[in-house]
Target: Membrane protein
Amino acid sequence: MIRTDLANERTLLAYGRTALMMAGTGGTLIKFFGESPDMLVLGILLLILGLVMFGTGIARFQIKRKQINGRV
Model:
């Protein structure tokens, strides 16, 4: 059971890592290539996707934690 909890936590960290990379890339595009409309749109899109990815990771973590603990 402990291994399952740890696997769930690793998955949450993977979602967080991916979200941080997306948001960081988006911020970099905005900062360095913001004068280009295409890069600005892409940067904003990546920032939004990073936030959505982080929210998805948290939601999945909580759902799986409840399932693991037998509350669902």
About this structure: The mean pLDDT is 94. The CA atoms of residues 12 and 59 lie 9 Å apart.
